[in-house]
Tautomerase
Amino acid sequence: MSMPYVTVKMLEGRTEDQKRALVEKVTAAVSETTGAPSEKIAVFIEEMSKNHYAVNGKRLSDQ
Amino acid sequence: MSMPYVTVKMLEGRTEDQKRALVEKVTAAVSETTGAPSEKIAVFIEEMSKNHYAVNGKRLSDQ
Amino acid sequence: MSMPYVTVKMLEGRTEDQKRALVEKVTAAVSETTGAPSEKIAVFIEEMSKNHYAVNGKRLSDQ
Amino acid sequence: MSMPYVTVKMLEGRTEDQKRALVEKVTAAVSETTGAPSEKIAVFIEEMSKNHYAVNGKRLSDQ
Amino acid sequence: MSMPYVTVKMLEGRTEDQKRALVEKVTAAVSETTGAPSEKIAVFIEEMSKNHYAVNGKRLSDQ
Amino acid sequence: MSMPYVTVKMLEGRTEDQKRALVEKVTAAVSETTGAPSEKIAVFIEEMSKNHYAVNGKRLSDQ
């Protein structure tokens, strides 16, 4: 079964090349440190838009 | 209050008919096995795109 | 790879037998309606305690 | 570091003004009650569409 | 049906009084700004331990 | 503000040393590939117990 499951939540705007490298490197990091084989590791990317993310009570789109 | 809460995360591409059947059958399964009345059970569908999901360090869109 | 991923969030207190039946029936319901083979479907159970869940501004433990 | 993290999951359709007020008031409420400074509090908005949310085995889009 | 759903993820250690006030004030803030009636709003508290949360590559328990 | 946010969901049982290395290496991988500075990256570890995780309709604790 696939495991661990990794979710990376970030602002939208990264390129496909960045995302491709991201899942590759993160998978390697998780495999190396947990001992889980790479083929069991799943990575999800979740993108946020600037009007749906706030810090200090203010959305990024309002700053 | 609504409860349990069920989230189904899957690749995009299922039809509306499949999704309609999915929430109906899952709700029935949860109700039958937990004893919660159907009207208290909420189901969320979350869709992933192929460039945001990877196994073995490779996104589905790159395989 | 495992997919879809199903998360069932519910109040703590169900028996092991209920949980065993829950994952079995939910998996069958998802497989039947999405066409995904059962061995690709993962189910997670997440339990909430009554002091960490509120409706109408009141926690269950306070009602 | 930012903390607490607050996620508000709701049906799509709120205006930008409503979302702006939402993150402001929620941040204030969390800061006041937990003692965390506002600049450490992050708020995420997640929107659901009516065909991806069901109660009682029926999606909102089917009711 | 209950909605919106609010999740507050924070370090463990808040008192029951703080949590009670937290869900009450957050519910009021969400109701006031989204127009949802309080009895439809659900709030979940999720606690993290210091060895399961890291910023800058270092867990809180290691700082 | 902290961002990206990374969540690693895995079976319980890893040692503190493994978790310490995990958050360090994952943070480095995310920083290198997204360009986000390490001090903006948060990592959460979520552990599952074997009776709350199932594949193929069967919990790990039942296999």
In short: Chain B touches chain C through 27 residues (CB under 8 Å). Chain B has one domain: 5-62.
